[in-house]
Amino acid sequence: MVTWLLALGGAVTFAVTSEGPVNTRATIPGIESQQAFDLIEERFPDAATDGASATIVFVAPAGEDLASAENAQVVDETLASLADNPQVLRVTPPSAGGSISADGTTGFASVSYEVPSSEVTDASRTALADAVEEARDAGLTAEMSGSALKTGTKMSVMELAGVGIAAVVLMMTFGSLLAAGLPLLTALIGVAISFLGVWAVAGPLGMAITTGMLALMLGLAVGIDYAMFVVSRFREERHGPDDGFEAAGRAVGTAGSAVAFAGATVVIALAGLSVVGIPSLMKMGLAAAGAVVIAVLVALTLVPALLAFAPNRVLSRAQRRGDFHLPSRHPVARSWMRTVLRRPLLITVAGVSLVAAVAVPALSLQLGTPGDASLPITETQRRAYDLRSEAFGPGFNGPLTVVVDARDAADPEAAVAEVADSISSTGGIVSVSKASFNERGDTAILSAVPSTSPTDERTEDLVDELRAARPDLEAAEHVTYEITGTTALNIDMAQKTQSALVPYVAIVIGLAVLLLMIVFRSLWIPITAALGFLLSLFAALGVIVAVFQWGWAADLLGIEQTGPVMSLMPILLVGIVFGLAMDYQVFLVSRMREAHVHGLPAREAIVTGFERSSKVVVAAAVIMIAVFGGFATAHEPLIKMVGLGLACAVFFDAFVVRLTLVPAILQLLGERAWWLPRWLDRVLPRVDVEGESLQEPADAPHEQRELTDAAITR
User: Fold this and answer.
1) Please, what is the average pLDDT of the chain?
2) What is the DSSP letter of 312?
3) What does the sequence similarity comment in the record state about its family (predicted)?
C-alpha cells in the first residue's frame, strides 16, 4: 500500500512540473496531404504551418456595407489591436474579391500566430476575445474560429456522475459500505496515477488532451470492475472468521487470474493500434493500455492489501453473523437461465436478429472529421462557420491547398497558371486564388474553394477527381502538384483508417480465438466469443451512425448538426470493445468451465457458472455503462462519440451477447462446447484461470457436492 501511495505522490509531482497535453496538427505518414504539408515546410520555411490561427468574421449592420468609412474603421481598429500582440505573426484584413462577400456585407480576417495552439497564452486568447467584443460593441456582428481558440477539455458534472452511479451499484451488489467503497477507492488511485502519468509525458511525446481523457475513461471503468471481481471472489472464498488471509490468496489465484488475462487482452488490443500507422491513434492506444495495466496491478496488489486490513468488514451481513455459506442460488438468475436453456435456438435467433437490426445503420457509415459545424450554436466557432457559409458558400470553411512543385518546368509561372486553370475549370470548384511562390520561384501554393462543405461526400469525390486528373497535366507541364489542407487531410485520414479497419479487425479476432482457446481449452467457445464481439461492435457503430450521422436523438446529447463519424472512431472502438468483450467472456465462462472441470455435466455447469458470476457481471456492466455514458456528454466530439459507443457496446455485449446468447449457444453445443482436438491440446500452453491448482484433493468431493446442489435440472 505504501508503494502505491509513493507512486501516486510521484505522479502528482511529475504532472505538476510538466507542460501537460498539447494540441498538435494531426500527422499521418504516407498520405498525400501529409507529404504536401512536409513540402510546404521545406520550400516555405517561414510559413509556420504548425502555428495557430484564428479567423474573425465581420458582418455589417442591416442595410449597411462593410466597406463604409465607419465600419471599415471598426475593422481596422480591431485588427490593429491584435497586430501588436507579440505572439501574432501576421494579420490579413478582409479584401475585395476574396474575403469580402459579393454583396459587401460580410468579410473575414485571418490572424496567424508564431506558436502552435498549445503555446498560445491566455493573454493572447483574451486579447482576441476582447478585440471581437469591441467590434460587437461598435455595432458589427463579429464571431471567431480557429485553432487559437482551443483551450482543452474539462470534465463536466455529468462525466463525474458515472462514479456516483458506480457507488450505488456497488452498494446494492455487496450490501456493505466498505466493500462498495474499496473498488472505488482503489480505482480512483489507479486512474489518478495513470492520468497524471499521461499528463506528465504528454508534452514531450506530443499527446493531445483526448489521449489523457481516454486513459481516464477506460482506466476508471476497468479499475472499478477488476477490483469488484476480486472483492466479490474474496467474500465467496471465506469459509470462516479466521480465513481472511487464505481467502485473499484464493481470490487472487482465481478471480485475480481472470483479471490478469482479461486485462492482457485489453492491453494487447489497445497496443495493437500501433500497427495502424496513425501516430495520434497509437498514442491513444498506448496511453489507455498503460491505464489498464495499472488497473490490473492495483486489483492484484493494492486490493488484497486493503482486504488484509479489514477482512471481516467487507463481508455481507450474514457472513458477519457467522454464516459463511453464501447462497449459490439466485432466483432471478435461475429464472433467466431456465428461460434461455428451455428454448436456446429461439433465444439465439431472437438475440442475433435484435443486434443485427440495431447494426443496420452501420452500413451507411461515413468517416470524416466533424468540425465547427457540429458544435452547438452557443459557441462562437459555430456562429462564425454559419456566417461564412451564408455569405461565401460552405466551401469557404474548408478550402483546398494545392502545392505545385515546378522545379523542372521551363517557365514555372506559366506552368503553375496552367495548373490553376485546370483546377478552376473542374466542376465543384468555386474559385482558385492567385499563386503564391517561394523565394526561389520554383514552388507555388494555390487555394481552391469547393462549392460544398468540408464534410460533404461530394467534397471527397471532388478531391479524388482532382487527383485523378493530374497525370496528363503533370507530364505536359513538367510539374508535380499535391492537394492538402485541413479538408484534404481529413479525407485522407478517413480513407487510411477505413482501409486499415478490416486487417485490424482480422488481427484482433484471430488473437481473440487463440487466447480463448488457451484459456478454455475449447474450439467452439472462442469462435462464439469472436462472433459475439462482432455483433456488439456493429451494434455500437449502428447507434453512433444513427445519432451522429442521421441525427436520431441527437438533441439529447447536444448535437445540433449531424456529420460524418470521426475517422479514428471505428478502429478505436474495435480496440476497446474487444478487450471489454473478452472481460465478460472470461469472467462468465471461466466459472462455467470451473464447474465443468469439477465434474458437472455441460448443462449444469452452464447454470452453476451463470448463477455464480452473473450478478457481478451485471454490476460490472452497469458501472461501465454509467462511466462511459457520462463521457457521452463531453464537449470534445471524439470523447462524446467514444463514450456513447462504448456504453452501447457494453450494453449489447454484456446483456444480449454474454448473458443471453452465450448460454443459449453453449446449451445447443452441449458437451461439444468443451471439445478441443487432442493435437491442439498438446500444443497450446496451459493457463489456470479457474484456479484449479488451488483446490486441495480433500476438498474436491465437497466442492463437487456444492456445485451439484447449486445446479438446476430440467
Assistant:
1) 84
2) T
3) Belongs to the resistance-nodulation-cell division (RND) (TC 2.A.6) family. MmpL subfamily.
